[in-house]
């Protein structure tokens, strides 16, 4: 399991590491075994590159020192490469004692050309398909953007990033460091929005009310501090999550077949949805365990079986006090859209009906479904749920228009569209979630996050502009004060609180936030952890821990990246004086997390319901499912 701090900051604790004098031999040092400090203390954070520079100067080699760069070399930097991954031999080595960087606008991201900083060919400009690229010496050429996972260390005049490896650049003055960061942000903005980075265009992208998202230093962060004060007064705040608390594995069990999704219950049972059926497991205070009933999709009943399902269910939604489950299967493999779903009676283990989505006599598609509210699955009389498609947001009712339960003997009963709106075009909805009172948050392909009140699905009360990356998953706290959006490369945490003209504190679900909008905070992997996770592994399904009671506060956030389950302390993320935020440029980004590493790609990671938290733990158990196994972890104090 990973440390609570960035692992890239902990790797060079030795005072005796040797570095190759000749640049071209730097790769050979991966065979060296770094000696450990005899003190056995936790490594300092993060002085490794300064140590490298000091050692190189002590060798009195014939190249410019850190204080005397070549005056004729524009944009001079020192370049370092991280080798050894997360093994005991991991360390930084000097790749280029002195080199230079340039930002180039070109269509040849992976190619080579002789363009200088800011130059481009006339043909490329006419084609319109050009990008800003960072070029460092002859070793790095990478498109500028969030995929680089750039992390800055202002106190060290250093930036780390990913470009077919993990690299670090150190600058020779504060001015050069700040100039690079500013230029990088401008190039990233232009690559994302295809317009020059200036104040006027930022207003076009973010809107005048959200300009703090573009200029975080000018944003009003007081609402974060107010929310932090409120958190400290919430129930169980006397047992805050401490830095010395750790995750302890309680159970691990093999599953019956390949797990595709996880449906956690708040009552007696939880459910593992697999390729051929659903495995029922028991809920305990230390996790889920025990092989209970197994429900096969093809149970021999041709009418009630799942033989008409297009593919394995990708979404399972518990309803009616967790006695029923709605199963949603994609119509086409690789795409989430479907024209209907199946209703499973968990107590009998049978599919009782196949529902169709329809409006005004026409079959329509949905891409996602959700409960009416955070605790709606516990309602024994629940008959409605929410549906989302690219340009639709609605509520479905399993009763007919007169409120009478439909005759399930009907061959293809149609769900009743009771509330909602079909948008003409352009919304590109991707995901949604509900608060405790039934307010709705929706994430979109363009990165926008919209908030809808419980009274209307036609007009969003608030629309956050996003940062340009598609929102692939979204969650919201029970009280609606916090939103967590998932993108491929980072998580975005948004505070919805604002003060209205009468001095009352509200959320963006209940009123228009106006100009007092706090800047969001980002949750990221360090460049090293991002690289170790793999280039094709992206953030998925970030969510808060689970509460369904007014006055209680979620305490953790969890997301999945490949074989990593990544956990953040919610209170720590909100703390503006937290060490992660020191010496940062732009939006505050939190890199303090814990990692659970599994042997296989993780299907889902979720915290159990708050009721399963025991007295000596600040949180309910964390459940992590891979295709073949399910594990439960409790949070406990280190010994």
Descriptive labels:
single chain; 639 residues; mainly beta; PH-domain like; Methylamine Dehydrogenase, Chain H; 2 domains; 7-stranded antiparallel β-sheet; 5-stranded antiparallel β-sheet; disordered N terminus
| Poorly predicted runs of 5 or more residues | 1-47, 121-125, 234-243, 300-310
Whole-number count of domains: 2
Over the alpha carbons, how many angstroms does the gyration radius reach? 26 Å
Instruction: Specify the number of helices.
Output: 8
Summed over residues and divided by their number, the pLDDT gives a mean of 82
**Major β-sheet, in short?**
7 strands, antiparallel
Q: In the CATH hierarchy, what is the superfamily of the largest domain?
A: YVTN repeat-like/Quinoprotein amine dehydrogenase
Region (Disordered): 1-50
Domain DUF7135: 38-207
InterPro entries: CYPRO4_DUF7135, Vid27, VID27_C, WD40/YVTN_repeat-like_dom_sf
GO cellular component, one term: nucleus
